[in-house]
């Protein structure tokens, strides 16, 4: 990357969530706990899916990649935020800021695509149960997963390749705890029309595009569930997609509210941003563990095997 166009600015100041030292100490403990829970919860889910053959299905293949993305998503922003909460100098280099933006694009874009692929998987399972094995073949679900990663990286490369050409000669202050593309655009004094077009296309593809696929899938799913005559059948069908529906609501709800708000560092904006990038990755493994009988059974089997191994 050519870094010669950054003028004299070599670093940005991240204002973070609070300037009060006592509040910062409390926030450090809180977010350190959230981060550790995120890592442990998602690693646990990855491990259980890996070692329990009952979970070697398309749905849990998607879920394993979602857990890995959540680990990456949280690790992109939280460690730097924790460092700044303990530091007097709350700065990040221009290169570090661009790197953070790059990996946020990768993680956010990949997660949106994975959630839409998982919605299609639930559509196939509920609306076409007899044809599910043919529809969701190994070739297809592998293509959906690696296609999600590919689109995430492509989106990030396009946006960052344009961002490195920006000239930063305005105020160095970012009213946030992490670097995001809208914050960088507002600090640039060069032409950002290409950046805005690329960002708009990213939003349409990974935001509205994937949400539309999820919405269409769940429209058909709900119609199919309502057409089931027995209450038990409806309850069983809904239980197969309830965990994913909660995860989708959390991700798109907080993400939409965050990006509809102006980039001003207002408290409500920061709350939605924390929910979107920090809290949701922690909640996903809890949602899929507590709301899913198969995962709970797999956890019990794994724990039983571990205890037997210790006794031996």
From TrEMBL:
<dbReference type="Pfam" id="PF13853">
    <property type="entry name" value="7tm_4"/>
</dbReference>
<feature type="transmembrane region" description="Helical">
    <location>
        <begin position="196"/>
        <end position="216"/>
    </location>
</feature>
<keyword id="KW-0807">Transducer</keyword>
<feature type="transmembrane region" description="Helical">
    <location>
        <begin position="98"/>
        <end position="120"/>
    </location>
</feature>
<keyword id="KW-1003">Cell membrane</keyword>
<dbReference type="InterPro" id="IPR000725">
    <property type="entry name" value="Olfact_rcpt"/>
</dbReference>
<comment type="function">
    <text>Putative odorant or sperm cell receptor.</text>
</comment>
<feature type="transmembrane region" description="Helical">
    <location>
        <begin position="60"/>
        <end position="78"/>
    </location>
</feature>
<dbReference type="GO" id="GO:0004984">
    <property type="term" value="F:olfactory receptor activity"/>
</dbReference>
<keyword id="KW-0716">Sensory transduction</keyword>
<feature type="transmembrane region" description="Helical">
    <location>
        <begin position="25"/>
        <end position="48"/>
    </location>
</feature>
<dbReference type="GO" id="GO:0004930">
    <property type="term" value="F:G protein-coupled receptor activity"/>
</dbReference>
<dbReference type="InterPro" id="IPR000276">
    <property type="entry name" value="GPCR_Rhodpsn"/>
</dbReference>
<feature type="domain" description="G-protein coupled receptors family 1 profile">
    <location>
        <begin position="41"/>
        <end position="288"/>
    </location>
</feature>
<keyword id="KW-1133">Transmembrane helix</keyword>
<keyword id="KW-0297">G-protein coupled receptor</keyword>
<keyword id="KW-0812">Transmembrane</keyword>
<keyword id="KW-0472">Membrane</keyword>
<keyword id="KW-0552">Olfaction</keyword>
<comment type="similarity">
    <text>Belongs to the G-protein coupled receptor 1 family.</text>
</comment>
<feature type="transmembrane region" description="Helical">
    <location>
        <begin position="140"/>
        <end position="158"/>
    </location>
</feature>
<protein>
    <recommendedName>
        <fullName>Olfactory receptor</fullName>
    </recommendedName>
</protein>
<keyword id="KW-0675">Receptor</keyword>
<dbReference type="InterPro" id="IPR017452">
    <property type="entry name" value="GPCR_Rhodpsn_7TM"/>
</dbReference>
<dbReference type="GO" id="GO:0005886">
    <property type="term" value="C:plasma membrane"/>
</dbReference>
């Amino acid at each position: 990357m050519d870094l010669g166009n950054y003028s004299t600015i070599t670093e940005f100041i991240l204002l973070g969530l609070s300037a009060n030292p006592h509040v910062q100490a409390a926030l450090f403990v809180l977010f350190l706990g959230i981060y550790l829970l995120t890592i442990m919860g998602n690693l646990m889910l990855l491990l259980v899916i890996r070692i329990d053959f009952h979970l070697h299905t398309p749905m849990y293949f998607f879920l394993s990649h979602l857990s890995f993305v959540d680990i990456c998503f949280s690790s992109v922003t939280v460690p730097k935020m924790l460092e700044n909460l303990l530091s007097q100098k709350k700065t990040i280099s221009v290169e570090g800021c661009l790197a953070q933006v790059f990996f946020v694009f990768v993680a956010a874009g990949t997660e949106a695509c994975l959630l839409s692929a998982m919605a299609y998987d639930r559509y196939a399972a509920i609306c076409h149960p007899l044809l599910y094995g043919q529809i969701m073949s190994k070739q297809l679900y592998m293509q959906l997963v690696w296609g999600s990663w590919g689109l995430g990286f492509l989106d990030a490369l396009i946006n960052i390749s344009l961002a490195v050409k920006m000239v930063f000669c305005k105020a160095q202050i970012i009213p946030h705890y992490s670097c995001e593309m809208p914050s960088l655009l507002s600090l640039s004094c060069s032409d950002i029309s290409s950046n805005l077009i690329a960002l708009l296309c990213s939003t349409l593809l990974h935001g509205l595009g994937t949400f539309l696929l999820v919405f269409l899938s769940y429209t058909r799913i709900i119609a199919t569930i309502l057409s089931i005559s027995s209450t038990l059948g409806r309850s069983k069908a809904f239980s197969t997609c309830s965990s994913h529906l909660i995860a989708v609501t959390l991700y798109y709800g907080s993400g939409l509210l965050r990006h509809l708000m102006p980039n001003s560092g207002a408290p409500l904006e920061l709350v939605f941003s924390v929910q979107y990038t920090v809290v949701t990755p922690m909640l996903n493994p809890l949602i899929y563990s507590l709301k899913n009988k198969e995962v709970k059974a797999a956890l019990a089997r794994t724990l039983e095997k571990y205890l037997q191994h210790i006794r031996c």
